[in-house]
Design brief:
This protein is an all-alpha fold. The chain has 15 helices and no strands. It has a domain of about 170 residues: Serine Threonine Protein Phosphatase 5, Tetratricopeptide repeat. Helices cover about 65% and strands about 0% of the residues. Helix 6 packs antiparallel against helix 7, helix 6 packs parallel to helix 8 and helix 13 packs antiparallel against helix 14.
Length: about 290
């Protein structure tokens, strides 16, 4: 359920290091790479060159990016962190790099550091959906659903004042959808349905809460008459590019898992491109119904 629904949130991170991070998302054991000895030596020589550049120009982003790419090719993910911290510091207006930093920390086993990085970003921007999803996923992975629920509820409490000061600061429907997904993960189906009903009541043209409710009812084992009309309604509301996928969900025997879905906009009338973090870095449980 969480995978099916959260994937519609459209949370992703624009590629920072090309395919290198993807190659290293499941790193080889220490000291084992696919590189030949000569290729490895060449990369290490290049790394030394970029390190010299950074000694002269600590803020040289081209050198930082290249050095991170090399470290990842060498399988030295731990060595990427200080460079990525610097890169994120130099690009504070782009929270995606901070989120990527949190993911890398989590992947290297520093869950506390990852959580702290997410929270620092959320202090500055409480409505950052990517940071919210990342932290929620981390908390769920650590079997802390109560903390995940509290985080989302606190964010919703901030929404009225934050949005009055600056409209759009916190996307309330999207946060509610994530909360509904967390409830579903905990088999709190009634609470999830209540949340989705609230979102639907306030966003009549948004197919996401309709789809989410349909999935919950089907997962819960309700009668087909209870959820099939909701799938049909979601298909009718959704943009054309998502109708087939929703139809597949409607006919699937098991809708509790599945691959990531596309990312429609908040109302379901548009599908804006939005950057997304590698799911591997977030762990196995990664929040997903439409939220952006």
């Amino acid at each position: 359920m969480v995978v099916c629904v959260i994937s519609f949130l459209g949370l992703s991170i624009a590629p920072l290091l090309g395919n290198a991070f993807q190659r290293s998302s499941s790193p080889e054991p220490e000291g084992q790479t696919d590189l030949s000895q000569s290729d490895e030596q060449l990369l290490r020589d290049q790394a030394k060159g970029f390190e010299l550049v950074l000694q002269r120009e600590p803020g040289n982003q081209t050198a930082l990016r290249s050095l991170m790419d090399i470290r990842l090719q060498l399988g030295e993910i731990d060595a990427v962190i200080p460079h990525l911290e610097k890169f994120a510091e130099l690009n504070q207006d782009n929270g995606d790099y901070t989120i990527l930093l949190a993911q890398v920390k989590q992947q290297t086993g520093d869950s506390e550091g990852a959580a702290q990085t997410y929270r620092q970003l959320l202090e500055a921007n409480p409505g950052n959906l990517k940071a919210l999803q990342g932290l929620v996923a981390l908390l769920l992975q650590e079997n802390r659903p109560t903390a995940a629920v509290s985080l989302l509820q606190d964010t919703l409490k901030l929404a009225p004042e934050a949005n009055e000061a600056k409209p759009g600061t916190i996307d309330k429907p999207s946060v509610q959808l994530i909360l509904g997904q967390v409830y579903t993960e905990q088999n709190r189906y009634a609470d999830a349905v209540d949340i989705y009903d609230q979102v639907q009541a306030e966003n009549a043209e948004d197919f996401r809460p309709v789809l989410a409710k349909a999935i919950v009812l089907k997962t819960e084992g309700k009668q087909a008459a209870d959820y099939e009309p909701l799938f049909e309604q979601a298909i009718a509301l959704a943009p054309d590019e998502y109708k087939d996928q929703i139809q597949q969900m409607a006919t699937a025997t098991n809708v509790s898992g599945g691959s990531a879905a596309p990312n429609p906009g908040a109302t379901g009338n548009a599908a804006p491109d939005s950057p997304a973090p590698p799911s591997e870095a977030q762990g196995e449980t990664s929040p997903a119904v439409p939220t952006e």
